[in-house]
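Summary for the lay section of the report: proteins are chains of building blocks that fold into shapes. Here we show the chain for Serpin-ZX and then a coded description of the shape we predicted for it.
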Amino acid sequence: MTKFKEFYLLDGSMVQAPFMSSIKRQFISTSDTFTVVKLPYKQQLGGHLINKLKFSMLFFSQIRGTGFMI
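The coded shape description reads as follows.
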């Protein structure tokens, strides 16, 4: 679910920005060199699921001071 929340910019000003939220368990994993987070997506229109395809976005974050290679 997407909710609008306060987001603070580098200059200290605030804007309303869309944030993803979920009460379900999320996939997060770490290794010696990186952390990965998997965010599932659903295609919805007016609160109704519009197809059965499943999508996920993976975020990889390098652990400082390590070599990061995929």
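Put simply, here is one thing we learned. Residues 24-63 form one domain.
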